[in-house]
Amino acid sequence: MPPTTAVVLPGTGSDEVFVRSVFSGPLRALGIRLLAPPPPPGDRLADGYLAVLDRLSAEHGLLLVGGISFGAHLSAEWAARNPGHCTGLLAALPAWNGPAGQAPASLAARLSADLVAENGVDGALAKSSDGVPDWLSAELGRAWRRHGDGLAASLRTAAARAAPELEDLKGLDVPAGIGACVDDPIHPVAVARAWADALPRAEVGESTLTALGADRESLGRATVLAWLKACR
After folding, report:
1. Number of other residues whose CB lies within 10 A of the CB of residue 173
2. Which residue of 120, 155, 174, 218 shows the fewest CB atoms closer than 10 Å?
3. What is the number of other CB atoms lying within 10 angstroms of the CB of residue 190?
């Protein structure tokens, strides 16, 4: 039976507004309802989201779960622990597997947390805007201000949390679409391919950050199309 409800989580320092801009259209085209819960505050980010997935699974039954970046990590972690409650995985821009170590996305989150702690949210945004594409600067400006005083703790929580080990992914026997931007150094395409190689039923859909800047749904389409191929 095809899934009717998808729960998709945002990445570090992002929010459900961005999730909807990426995934609403592609999922709607398949008749799948998107639930995009807002980020739990501060250091509750990870445990809070896992609790949200537990609650939504109890309310809605089988779920198609997914996320962007850190949200992809958390959704895969939950799915691996709850295989009987998950019909598939939409993992866009996974950033590492296992301990974060020196992964670029973890380092970026730690540096951002330090900037926020030292300069406040608006000061950190001002210092982070140089060389950043306008679309990304606008996304950060909205999402970081929505996180407010809990932003630094949220960033540090995500930066320090281990992603699923590749060995854990090998046991997740559901269709999985892995979305990657081939020009994204923070979320290396090699990580997406490693996830897909580990998962029993997975495909990779590739796009670019340039395309994402012009059309948020480009990443959602790449991820959802990869999932559809994995369902065959």
Report:
1. 10
2. 120
3. 9
User: What are the pLDDT digits (tens) for 104-142?
Assistant: 999 999 999 999 999 999 999 999 887 889 999 999 999
Question: In this predicted model, what pLDDT tens digit does every residue of 164-222 receive, in sequence order?
Answer: 999 999 999 999 999 999 999 999 999 999 999 999 999 999 999 999 999 999 999 99
Indicate the class that CATH gives domain 5-98+163-230. Answer: alpha beta
Calpha distance 188→185 (Å, rounded): 5
Which amino acid appears at position 184 of this protein? D
Residue 11 φ/ψ, nearest 5 degrees = -85, -175
β-sheet bridge partners, residue 225: none
- Could you give the CA distance from residue 38 to residue 40 in angstroms, rounded to a whole number? 6
Domain locations along the chain: 5-98+163-230, 104-156
pTM of the complete model: 0.96
